[in-house]
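[Meeting: bench + compute handoff]

Bench side (C.D.) handed over the final construct sequence. Compute side (W.E.) agreed to return the predicted structure before the next meeting so the bench team could plan truncations. Sequence as handed over:
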Amino acid sequence: MNIFYRSCLLFVCTLIITSASSAQVKCGIDNLIDTEFEMLRGSSVVLVTHAAARTFRGTSTAEEFIGCKDLRTLRVLAPEHGYYGVVAAGIHVANDSVQGIPVVSLYGPKRRPDADMLAGATAVVVDLQDIGVRSYTYISTMVEVMEACAELNIRCVILDRPNPLGGITVEGNLPDDTLRSFIGRLPIPYIHGLTMGELATMTNESGWLEKSRAGTALRCSLTVVRCKRWRRTMMWHDTQLSWYPTSPNIPTFESVRGYALTGLLGELGPCSIGIGTTMPFTVIGAPDFVQDSFIVATCKRYGVVAARSKFVPMVAKYANTVCEGYHLEPTQSWQPYSVAIALLWRMRQLRPDAFATSLVQRPHGKMFAKACGSTELLKALIEGKPLSACEKIADMGVEEFKKRRSAFLLYD
């Protein structure tokens, strides 16, 4: 009888595991594995990836490629923060290695692969876990790779991944042409609601790659290996996938959402945004931060709960000092860029010294303008213009972009 019950229990457990697996969201790398790398068999591959790019079982994409006997992995190219994701923002990344394969930096003297980096490749495969915010540099790295592939006539394959912020929310002004940079390479909103595969497709088809010597936009031979069972309504916690740190201050999905809310605030530095704590980007505060009903009410209006909090950063702003402020917790129907602009506007009132007129010419003011894509918005904040005026600037081009992007959506 015991044997019978054990057999039944084993059968039920197996059924549950199989059912859960069949409902699991899979990334492009998982679908490639499921087909036994069929589309790349016999290829010599240069892999653009990092340790945060994982299969749904938890192995890294680099491990899977290096272990595949049906292709040859020549080298790995690593983005900002390095292959292992431990290098601080803005710091040049040194060359490295993974399982005996050389890792060449794409965030040092060169940010575009040159002929030597791609030597011998019949395909370049990109698998980078992005966070869904325009200022995160993995988008720019992908575009640089696409342009190199177009110039050298090498096939480019994007292994797609879910946008952790989902595919519904789209917010934020398009960047001014004069402010295009590595933290704002494409004419897309700050919160774009696209996967890397969708961004690559839109870039390739819209003529966003740089011009050739003949004056026409480059276009690469592009293949996107799609995700399976990902829907646009899904945020990361809906996918059943584990989150692996994409950079030192993005250790969790909570920090991904926080970056969308407070990343711009961090560029100007009027308060701590939790860098140096166990919850980076998810809190705002200072030693003298007073309770503020405007922050609470405005966050609530845009789908974010602002709860009173205390925290102590170990490094960065206000290191080793108790800060009072708010913990920001998004709901499913949030508007992160609207919250970001409202917080910036309120900080201008509460901490005017951080918004001096000379800020436009200071390095962190210029960096803020690049990140938000608008010097006009920076000036409006400095001049203390009404919130409605700032929000109008922050909404420029969004509706037109939403219409345009519909042609490039790969998922429902």
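W.E. noted at the follow-up: The radius of gyration is 22 Å. C.D. will use this when planning the next construct.
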